UniProtKB/TrEMBL annotation:
It comes from the Bacteria. Residues 195-329 form the SSD domain. This is RND superfamily putative drug exporter. The chain crosses the membrane at residues 181-199, 204-223, 229-252, 278-298, 310-330, 361-381, 504-525, 537-556, 576-599, 625-644, 650-670. The keyword Disulfide bond does not apply. It comes from Nocardioides ginsengisegetis. Keywords: Cell membrane, Membrane, Transmembrane, Transmembrane helix. Signal peptide: none annotated. It is a multi-pass membrane protein. It is found in: Cell membrane. The lineage of its organism: Bacteria, Bacillati, Actinomycetota, Actinomycetes, Propionibacteriales.
Length: 715
């Protein structure tokens, strides 16, 4: 790291020119990169995906989309009875006015299940093609327009469905650029407090270069494989937080070295040797967590892993080259007005560390109690999709849904099961599957759009929404019954996709977990020159992650706070792909703070301080820094939570809470108390392991009591 720092300082102008060119190129290519991102949640090789492909190939819609429900409500005093032909014509107008749609209603099935109990409202299922771009809107308005053009006079038309409810009655929230600017503004306020000088702008400049460099590196990846649209949000906002955090760590250490009397050149080199090394190891841990997603047999998760890993890669590269180049040139002039000094550890955090070390058992028990309560909540987690009640609270889609619900129509109509059959076996298949417990109706449409090439799509309506790991049991029963049944070619639908996802992803989760834990442990053994400290770090990360899931259960699944903060009622489940994303990002991001703190504690111990003194000095030096860095990352996730869609909000709030929990309960209580309790055992690395990892061996030195360790407690 010293040699690299010297190289950067000698060529700092060329380093600046290089990153300026990257900034311009990244800005020019960002829009093109975003346009090449895909919307694809398929699971190749899974039965549901194969069935979906057959359905789309046959009838060009459905399979991997939930249908829109078009409703017609007759005026007061009139009923559907007597107006069947007019209502049928109104629904038939959908297929004529909206391309590639398939309508299933009473007219083509002969089933009165499409009427409400009061006989005033009829509805039709409208299946449509899966959207090909992120900003593509479901055909809500075209369907409404088509029906209104043919509906009986005085009748009220409504359109609802999972996708219609998901977009609610607004424009969908701010875009990526707006969210990034919001996160950047919050970060600037924190940085202004931390530095109290013009240096507050430096981490933002580093973050801007890092984000656009990531977009630039992402572009060629989009030509090699499909990359999920979710990556653009992560690059912009996670990249913002990570790059600022890394630069913040390095710049703060540079100021500390200057306040200790070093000249500018020496201060930059010293900061790179210490904080720079911590940044490097932190970036590697974040990348490991994300790259582990590659082992999952899910293309969109793999793409998120590959694209997401570019975030810490770019952030580390920019931080360890552009930041020292700027500091080595104009750093002292930019550090104006110099109000805050870093020559001493934070008095507040030093006192806190002394208190925790002295009351380490009590601190440990308090932290474990907090995490334990959240772990209990985690045991009740349901994996699935947001329920219809949580998707929107107002708007025409909600009004149409309430009309159906009040009329006795099950919300299972929002998430039907589609069964592709041979046409001559469709009626018998429907009759058999309709007998399964949990199926409200089995429908065979005679419409031309439901049959093609001797294949017909049978639609099953469950008696409730199949939106989570517990409500999809009826889907499993259908799949089991349909397996080997004559004439059945495949089973598809939202519930089927969830069953396949639970099997494909969470079935491989132990492999992903083991891979991440092993690689991270080996990396941290080399970083800390210890066997125990990395083991503690990995275990604490896993424990804190279960606590984060518990918080998501309480906040979103059970609705304790989601309605008050976002106006969204309980979701009934945690979106099936979100826990994996939260795990992949948080495992590395929260390890950042572990590395920063323990690296400083190790540095103080190597300088000859006893373990407790090293803990106190390490926390005193890094406490304010870690808290500020966590707050910046939290604000980035808060900006992400302002984006469109409940699923994105669930992920963003999970990440945000995880960062705060990690920076407070885990790093402020658990880490100092456990390191203090472990004492000499923290610093042991056998000679053989050290030679294998090509680092110096480590053995605990003789510790002499430091009278200053506890002398200030209570003062």
């Amino acid at each position: 790291m010293r040699r690299w720092a010297e190289f950067v300082l000698r060529h700092r102008r060329w380093v600046g020119v290089f990153w300026l060119l990257v900034l311009v190129a990244g800005g020019a290519s960002a829009s093109r990169t975003s346009d090449r991102l895909t919307v694809d949640f398929s699971l190749p090789g899974q039965p549901g995906t194969e069935a979906t492909s057959l359905i789309v190939q046959a009838v060009h819609n459905g399979g991997n989309t939930t249908p829109m429900l078009a409703t017609v409500t007759m005026p007061e005093g009139q009923t559907i009875t007597g107006n069947e032909d007019a209502v049928a014509q109104a629904f038939a107008a959908i297929e004529q006015g909206v391309p590639d749609t398939r309508v299933v209603d009473e007219a083509n099935t002969g089933d009165t299940a499409f009427r409400t109990d009061d006989d005033r409202t009829a509805y039709a299922m409208v299946f449509y093609p899966f959207p090909q771009t992120f900003d593509a809107k479901p055909p809500t308005e075209p369907i409404r327009t088509a029906v209104e053009g043919a509906v009986p006079s005085g009748a009220v038309v409504g359109v609802t469905g999972i996708d219609a409810l998901a977009i609610g009655d607004d424009s969908g929230g701010p875009g990526v650029l707006t969210e990034t600017l919001l996160g950047g503004l919050g970060a600037l306020l924190v940085l202004a407090f931390v530095f109290a000088s013009m240096l507050a702008l430096l981490p933002l400049a580093v973050a801007a270069v890092s984000i656009l460099a990531t977009f630039l590196m992402l572009l060629p990846l989009t030509y090699l494989t499909d990359v999920s649209f979710i990556v653009q949000f992560l690059v912009a906002l996670v990249g913002l937080g990570v790059a600022i955090d890394y630069s913040l760590i390095l710049v703060t250490r540079w100021r500390e070295e200057r306040d200790h009397g070093k000249n500018n050149h020496e201060a930059v080199v010293a900061a790179m040797e210490t904080a720079g090394q911590a940044v490097l190891f932190s970036g590697l841990t974040v990348a490991i967590g994300l790259l582990a997603l590659i082992v999952l047999p899910v293309p969109f998760m793999r793409s998120i892993g590959m694209g997401g890993a570019l975030i810490p890669f770019a952030s580390v590269m920019v931080t360890l080259s552009l930041t020292p180049a700027i500091l080595g040139g104009i750093g002292p002039r930019v550090d104006w007005p110099k109000i805050r000094h870093e020559n001493k550890a934070s008095k507040g955090w030093t006192k806190w560390a002394r208190l925790v070390v002295r009351r380490r058992v009590a601190a440990l028990l308090v932290a474990l109690l907090a995490l334990g309560l959240l772990f209990v909540a985690f045991l009740g987690i349901k994996i699935g999709a947001a329920s219809s009640d949580s998707l929107a609270q107002s708007g025409p889609a909600v009004t149409a849904l309430h009309t159906l619900e009040d009329g006795g129509i099950t919300t299972g109509a929002l998430t039907p099961i589609e069964v592709l059959t041979e046409s001559d076996q469709a009626s018998s298949v429907a009759a058999e599957l309709g007998k399964i417990q949990g199926i409200d109706a089995a429908l065979v449409s005679t419409g031309a759009t439901s049959t093609a090439d001797g294949r017909t799509v049978v639609v099953l309506i469950p008696d409730g929404e199949t939106v989570n790991s517990r409500s999809v049991e009826v889907v499993r029963r259908v799949k089991d019954a349909a397996d080997g049944m004559p004439g059945v070619l495949g089973v598809a639908g939202l519930g089927t996709a969830q069953v396949d996802f639970l099997h494909a992803v969470y079935g491989n989760f132990p492999l992903m977990l083991s891979l991440i834990a092993l690689l991270t442990y080996v990396l941290l053994v080399r970083a800390f020159r210890s066997l125990l400290l990395p083991l503690k770090a990995v275990i604490l990360n896993l424990v804190s992650l279960t606590a984060v899931y518990g918080a998501m259960v309480l906040f979103w699944q059970d609705g304790h706070g989601s309605d008050a903060l976002f106006g969204i009622s309980e979701t009934g489940a945690v979106t099936f792909w979100v826990p994996l994303m939260v795990f992949a990002f948080l495992f590395g991001l929260s390890m950042d703070y572990e590395v920063f703190i323990l690296a400083r504690i190790r540095e103080e111990y190597d300088a000859g301080h006893p373990t407790d003194s090293a803990v106190i000095e390490g926390i005193g030096r890094t406490g304010r820094l870690v808290t500020s860095a966590a707050l910046i990352l939290f604000l980035a996730f808060a900006a992400l939570a302002s984006g469109p869609g409940t699923d994105l909000k669930v992920m963003a709030t999970g990440l945000g809470f995880g960062i705060l929990l990690d920076a407070t309960v885990v790093r402020s209580l658990l880490v100092p108390s456990l390191v203090s309790l472990f004492g000499r055992w923290n610093w042991y690395l056998p000679d053989g392991v050290a030679r294998l990892l090509r680092v110096e061996p480590s053995h605990a030195h003789t510790e002499r009591p430091d009278q200053s360790t506890f002398s200030q407690v209570g003062k």
